[in-house]
Amino acid sequence: MEEHSGSEARCIRNPPPQVKEAAENPAIGAHTDFGSLSFLHNRLGGLQVMPPGHDEWSFVRPIPGHAICNVGDALALFSGGILQSNIHRVVPPPGAQVEYERWSLVFFTRPGNSGVLHALVDSSPLIAEAVKKQPDRNFETGSTAAAWFARRIKNQRINNRTGPETWAASRGTEHTPTVV
Ligand SMILES: O=C(O)CCC(=O)C(=O)O
Ligand SMILES: [Fe+2]
Fold first, then answer.
1. Phi, psi (deg, nearest 5) at residue 155
2. What are the pLDDT digits (tens) for 37-56?
């Protein structure tokens, strides 16, 4: 714990949709998280994931007393793509839950600001092997965590998101072979 990082805790409140048609609209558009691991604490449903290789959304059911853990893009990079960051979004809660306000408490862990994001090939033969097998992907971002997060946050702005499938506009790790 020697330096600052972009780690943050966030408390998110989504009021129930005002009109019925809004029930399909995402409250948080499709994206991958930027950091290492995210820990989500939800009481109501509404979180959906699209796992790699799938083209449909699935609800993630909150389990009382448990957190939902997302792998973020920095961890995907560190691991040479062995761990994948998942695309997810938040829609109004399903069924009768739609009547209620949805609260979510999230803790995002992120690497220290000055660290340069790259695959940890010198720390793990498994990661070195994985990187070798993906010559078309760039795991050497040349970017510090601080610069990387600044760019990702800028790209996440609502103006860049014209629909639920425009998650690519936020430049997550999976929409293109290069991650930089
Ligand atoms: O509210 C949730 O369940 C997820 C929120 C989320 O994905 C985020 O803030 O990055
Ligand atoms: Fe997220």
1. -70, -15
2. 999 999 999 999 988 788 88
